[in-house]
Amino acid sequence: MHLQKQLLYSILRDDIRLWSVEAGREEIKARLGNQKVLLMLDGVDKVAHVHALAKDTSWFGPGSRIIITTRDRELLNSCGVDIVHQVKCLDEKDALQMFKHIAFGGGTPPDGFEKISIRATRLAHGLPYALQAYALFLRGSANTPKEWEEALGALESSLDQNIGLDCFFAFVFGFALTSKKNLCRLNIPLALGFCVYALQNFLTKK
């Protein structure tokens, strides 16, 4: 129920009382059934979470899309996902090159930034969207190697937590873009990095 309340509040800005998971499903369908929504569920590890929040696109308005990120392919099969996209990871060399290009505007890292760049790159595990998000986050929040160390340490600490479905984004077309990244204690620039990258790719493929 907690996640259902968060989803409804993030879009409607209305604190709705729910008495059960089933009641939450009905509220989502009733209140969001006419809205065109792109809902991204990040880091899903339980089928029950998907079924509680967005079991089917028919719960939302025409043209709505549900995007799920997970490491569990069987979970996607259990949820009846129509299209599965396997993210291609970059090798360490290409990942570092991409990170530097974004973090330093295509230039060579200044003195003192090389080792930190390698550390940040490894944190992304070769995932392009994560590389872009981390690079944008660090470029926007830190200027010196020491500040990068502190920012990267905070990021690593946040990612060590069991974030789960508290990290999700809801895009309601024609309305404000909302983010629940604050629930997992990550800074807003990082959240926007994920959001913008995901949205750009979604619109490009349309």
Q: What features would you describe in this structure?
A:
- There is one protein chain.
- It contains nine helices and four strands; from the N terminus they run H-H-E-H-E-H-H-H-H-H-E-E-H.
- It folds into two domains: 2-86 and 165-181, no CATH class; 92-159.
- It has helices spanning 2-12, 21-32, 47-54, 73-78, 92-103, 114-123, 128-141, 145-159, 188-205; strands at residues 37-41, 65-68, 168-172, 177-179.
- Helix 3 (47-54) links the parallel strand 1 (37-41) and strand 2.
- The protein is 51% helix and 8% strand.
- It has 206 residues and is an alpha+beta fold.
- Strands 2-1-3-4 form a four-stranded mixed β-sheet, with helices on both faces.
Low-confidence segments: 161-206
Rg (CA only): 18 Å
Shape: elongated
Number of domains: 2
Instruction: Briefly note the structural class of the backbone.
Output: alpha+beta
Tally of DSSP β-strands: 4
Strand order of the largest sheet: 2-1-3-4
Distance between the termini: 32 Å
- The sequence of SSEs as H and E is HHEHEHHHHHEEH
Rounded mean pLDDT score? 74
**Number of helices, counting only DSSP H or I runs of 4 residues or more:** 9
| Beta-strand content estimate | 5-15%
Characterize the largest beta sheet: strand count, sense, and whether it forms a barrel: 4 strands, mixed
Helical content class: 40-55%
Primary descriptors:
206 residues, alpha+beta, four-stranded mixed beta sheet, 9 helices, 4 strands, hydrolase activity, NB-ARC, hydrolase, Disease_R_plants
